[in-house]
Specification:
Arc Repressor Mutant, subunit A, single chain, globular, alpha+beta, five-stranded mixed β-sheet, 7 strands
Length: 334
């Protein structure tokens, strides 16, 4: 069974470009190679596919020979991530591996400080970013927290989840997207950016070796920049079920029955996640539509039927609400 598609807000595309743009480089060629229309950056609700997002990350790294994407005064040359990851091999516990990660990153750049702290039953990795990075490079906080948290989860064997994330800047316009990118509690306006894990999880033995690291690096950068699926979330279970059963689009009672829940229980779980059945359904249909418009020449009427719309006009209105542009315009830009 295919996993539901993933799309990324164009706000994170602008953030990814902000490092090289702050240094005076042009982003147009990189966007072209990644298959992202330049005009899409001006759409407040614009979105790109996960494949386009990963492609842009790879193009930026290769074109500038900088795995830090221009955010640091010294470029992180090709192989920097592999170097830091190899420093964790042989660590006795996950916490020891985290401290080695911090030391490795500290050797490679002079701008950002790392600090491992404990508070009650939690261990935090704080990232102290100079104020010189505000406001045009706040993406560096999000980038570092996303990459390092994924590395920590991988070091543990993929069986832990972060408790939460702190961000040392105000809640951005795309704050709702953070709750999908970062599993756990999300807080803004904090003294430092940080990620938090239950301390007990980090005191367990490190479960990775050289062979596992080679496999991990073969899948990089996708496995560090794409949002991590939370298969336990009710919204993710609904997305997976709807993806599996399409082109049928069952209603709320039928979906609750398929997931062995009452309607009220399903709605309560979704409310706890800040979502609703209609939101989950529309977000999946939006992501499927973007993927199909990017990868096929399907007729709009056919696509509307696949997505469960009564006719093409209804689909076009919905797509414009979701993304800010009509599906035909979106395809032409591609």
């Amino acid at each position: 069974m295919l996993n539901p598609p993933v799309t990324i807000s164009v706000a994170f595309v602008r953030g990814m470009l902000s490092g090289i743009c702050a240094g005076g480089a042009s982003s147009e060629e990189c966007l072209l190679q990644a298959g992202i229309p330049l005009a899409l950056l001006d759409e407040p609700e614009g979105r790109v596919t996960a494949e386009q997002y990963v492609a842009l990350f790879e193009v930026l790294m290769k074109q500038h020979d900088d795995e830090g994407l221009g955010f640091f005064s010294r470029p992180l040359r090709h192989g920097s991530l592999a170097f830091v990851m190899r420093s964790t091999l042989g660590a006795t516990t996950v916490e020891t591996a985290i401290r080695r990660l911090c030391s490795g990153f500290q050797l490679l750049q002079d701008d950002v400080q790392f600090d491992v702290v404990r508070e009650d039953q939690l261990t935090g990795l704080r990232i102290i970013v100079p104020t010189a990075y505000y406001p045009d490079r706040i993406f560096v906080h999000e980038l570092l927290l996303r990459i390092i948290s994924r590395l920590v989860v991988w070091l543990h064997g993929g069986r832990i989840r972060p408790f939460g994330f702190d961000f040392a800047y105000p809640s951005p316009p795309q704050a709702n997207e953070y709750y999908k990118l970062f599993v756990g509690r999300v807080r803004f306006d904090q003294p430092q950016s940080a990620m938090w894990f239950p301390t007990a999880n980090l005191l367990t033995a490190m479960r990775r070796d050289e062979a596992a690291l080679r496999d991990f690096l073969l899948q990089s950068p996708r496995n560090v920049v794409i949002p991590q699926r939370n298969d336990d979330a009710t919204s993710e279970r609904i997305r997976t079920y709807l993806q599996k059963i399409r082109p049928q689009w069952p209603d709320l009672p039928a979906t609750a029955d398929a997931l062995h829940m009452s309607v009220s229980t399903l709605q309560r779980h979704l409310a706890d996640e800040g979502s609703s059945f209609q939101m989950v359904k529309d977000q999946l249909r939006r992501d499927l539509a973007i993927m199909r418009l990017n990868t096929s020449t399907v007729q709009l009427a056919t696509l509307a039927a696949e997505l469960g719309f009564s006719d093409q006009a209804v689909f076009q209105r919905a797509f414009k609400t979701w993304t800010g542009s009509a599906p035909g315009t979106y395809r032409q830009r591609r």
